[in-house]
Amino acid sequence: xxxxxxxxxxxAFWAILERFAMNxxxxxxxxxxxxxxxxxKSNYLFGFFLMGIVIFFIGAMLKIVAMEFQMxxxxxxxxxxxxxxxxxxxxxxxxxxxxxxxISALNSLDLKGKFPFLGVVIFNIIIIASAxxxxxxxxxxxxxxxxxxxYDNLEMLKPHNKKELLANVAEMTGLDIKKIRIRRVxxxxxxxxxxxxxxx
Length: 200
What we know:
The protein is an alpha+beta fold.
């Protein structure tokens, strides 16, 4: 095994790590500060972060491989995205996925004076700021917290018992119930799943 295998004294290697550190900072701002703050969903954070990390390193190394391999990676990414879209992604999560891809691909570029480094930083900030502004001004949020419960008194679900249902669920849960939505009813087992909305 040659000594080059263990030799990390290479400016290109350390330049990639510097850009990677910057990429992590901007991914954190986009996903943890903006996405998680407004969505409250943590189940996609792992996938978003890992995808951003992988895309960064692939993009950083593409300059040393053939164009055919770049095309293969591009096609793989497209089919992966389409597969994710068919499973469970909504439009907003897809938008964040594309933002993760864009930020990671942008930060992986080794521009070497062809474009100012500050310009790349500004582009990152614009993407993250755009996501924040859109979330803040355009996303409609329910002012109440909510979670599902199992309810076993189907008689109370009739429309004319609406006030009694609110009072009954409030007494059961000890919460200030503002709204109740019926998710599904199982008449065979005589139970229902309700979404309750309450002030915290």
